[in-house]
Design brief:
32% helix; 14 helices; Alkaline Phosphatase, subunit A; eight-stranded mixed sheet; homodimer; alpha/beta
């Protein structure tokens, strides 16, 4: 469905919406016939909410598609993840909460180690620490000089950084310098089309790579940078405009705050613990109409491959769910941006359970928030991009379509 | 979802995929509340597989749409049947295993009977036998002469044939000569647009129709031909390219082998009995990574309107399902290309049951492979075109989408 249709139907209202994302909560059984992580976890609060809700299974992007964090969240925010793409470089900038300007070109950078011949010996520079990465970013940003361009270098985590080229007449149509393997020198960036902008940008990236070698020459394992995923800021119409909500993100991890900013959300800063997400929700409840609460740690336990730890985390989050002031909301969805089965240790394509609570929902007899129970729920199976219209509808923020 | 997205995500792998199509297996109860054919059949092997699988209901094309064999299979093969069309003439060519060249125009032909006034008295020429049809096709192909064009005439079944015009500067934009009713003469083909190619093709078809009257003048009931569905070979990107699989079709009926060839599958030839399909699967298991096994007879019993015979056939196929070497596969789907309820004696729009087995699937508690049980399964309801991405994902042949 075209966003212009929703935009025409959406109305301002003081009925509030909560989107609670349990990152990577969907899972798999360890043994055939056994429980998934959500099925194994004791979750009285989520179960009680499910019993009062319509439930279902959701493909965050589409059936079979393994969602990256960007597409998975765009879908949940109501943006078709096949239509709206966030390039790697733009995601890196979002991840460090760097607000790109429309003409900026963002790139994902790795600090790397090169030997005397110029060949890469370690694409991760011995996995330097984030604090060391920050020092090197600062040094690089100060020392590099490209004619007519500003170069901004922001640390991500460990050896990762975001690089922004700021200036006129740049293009994202350039190839990577990161060869994605050791044993060869960084590649030369080449223009991806015939435009003078692409040629100019490729040249700038190559000159930046050259200067970085000089600046970092004595910096031990981190004596080079490789760049990839040149991208502009994605052109996402803000949620305020499309969905007529006043949205806020309540999250602990930079990437999710960055993604939220890309669709126009304000962000509650300074949160570190999962518990603080629920406290902050109560604190800012009067100030917004759309609340995106993001819980990261469940996904991390799945990526660790630790079934038991993921179960425990789910149970801890369940205890915090009791703090949601349900009566303040017109509609609440609890779901995930993708599955992260601990048996697979990574994002997977399996659909995720979803519950949609509202005074206007049809309770469907599902009494447990897990994959098997929700498969029998009244929402059936649907795509992530279809969640937002249902939330808006249940919060009675959508007009009738057509006469 | 655009195939280009899947093409970017799909990866080569040695994990194998089996798509077992029980043609027309979906059905209806004879009496309200009674069992469908699949529910009436005793199917211990399919049920055991279902119990270890994720199950659901699938609309091969879209809800409410009665799938022809072409669109039904294209959907199963992962091609949007609304986007990729196989014209009637091209389907006829596929059905007789005639490999069209890109500039060919394919047409579906009926041998017909005309009276002295030229009016059609029987659009099916007294339903002549296939062997007689083959003789007449050969005679026609040898006798007809069109300037600058080659005319190929291939027998289908009974009174049906495929005609191909081969030459330069032809067009598929021409109207049918088949009036689809008796009592009138064959129609004149007319150009469907203003191009010289359409005019030339219409002229060629009319001249062919005229010459056929001469050639067939003494051939009893089959003394004329009517033509319809002018079409080029559909432009389907091969499965190897899009899905990165090495596919083979194991089928007994020409049309399904032809459809498989249109998407780039190799074909196991010489099979006649259903049993041989399962034997061939075991024989070629090491040579491919995607196996399309097609079982035709269940559909035929449905078209006969014989509920009991369809039940018996399903039970016979179930016994053969035990021969599937499950451990050789990364993912297995068992489903149908459409329903053929014996009460309706024809293809129907009812969604078909589907099971998806994989070491990475979520068993969902469904313990029987039939319409009612699968309706409660973890796959929910989805479209045929969404099956292939799920098979690829479960066989771990898809990369993550987006960062």
């Amino acid at each position: 469905m075209d966003l212009r249709i929703i935009q025409e139907l959406a109305e301002e209202s003081d009925r509030k919406i909560l989107l609670l994302v349990l990152d990577g909560a969907g899972g798999l059984a360890v043994e055939p016939g056994g429980p998934t992580e959500l099925e194994a976890a004791r979750t009285p609060n989520l179960d009680e909410l499910a019993a009062a809700s319509s439930c279902g299974l959701m493909d965050p992007v589409a059936p079979g598609i393994i969602p990256g964090s960007g597409p998975g969240h765009l879908g949940l925010f109501g943006y078709d993840p096949f239509r709206y793409l966030i390039g790697r470089g733009a995601l890196s900038c979002a991840g460090v909460n760097f607000l790109m300007e429309p003409e900026d070109i963002g790139l994902r950078a790795n600090f790397a180690t090169v030997d005397e011949s110029g060949a890469i010996t370690d694409r991760r520079a011995g996995r330097i620490e984030t604090s060391r990465c920050a020092e090197l970013c600062e040094k690089l940003e100060a020392a590099v000089a490209l004619e007519g361009l500003q170069v901004l270098v922001k640390p991500e985590k460990d050896y990762r950084a975001a690089v922004v080229l700021r200036g006129k007449e740049l293009s994202a149509a350039v190839t990577d310098t990161d060869p994605q393997r050791a044993g060869v020198p960084p590649l030369k960036a080449t223009p991806g089309d015939d435009s003078p902008e692409a040629a100019r940008t490729a040249e700038a990236i190559n000159e930046l790579t050259r200067q970085a070698l000089e600046v970092l020459a004595d910096e031990g394992p981190a004596n080079a940078i490789v760049l990839r995923g040149a991208a502009r800021k994605p052109d996402l119409p803000p949620m305020q405009e499309v969905f007529k909500v006043n949205p806020v993100a309540i999250a602990t991890y930079p990437m999710y705050k960055g993604l939220a900013r890309l669709v126009g959300m304000e962000v509650v800063e300074g949160l570190e613990q999962t518990e603080e997400v629920f406290d902050a929700l109560n604190k800012v409840i009067d100030d917004y109409t759309f609340f995106f609460c993001h819980i990261k740690e469940i996904d991390s336990r799945g990526e660790d491959g630790d079934f038991e730890a993921k179960v425990r985390l789910i149970e801890e989050v369940d205890a915090l769910v009791a703090r949601i002031p349900r009566e303040a909301f017109g509609a609440i969805a609890v779901t995930a941006d993708h599955s992260t089965p601990s048996t697979l240790r990574t994002h997977s394509w399996h659909p995720v359970p979803v519950l949609l609570w509202s005074p206007t929902c049809r309770a469907d007899g599902v009494e447990s928030f897990d994959e098997r129970a929700c498969a029998g729920g009244g929402l059936g199976r649907f795509r992530g991009v279809d969640l937002m219209p249902q939330l808006l509808a249940h919060a009675q923020r959508l007009k009738k379509y057509g006469a």
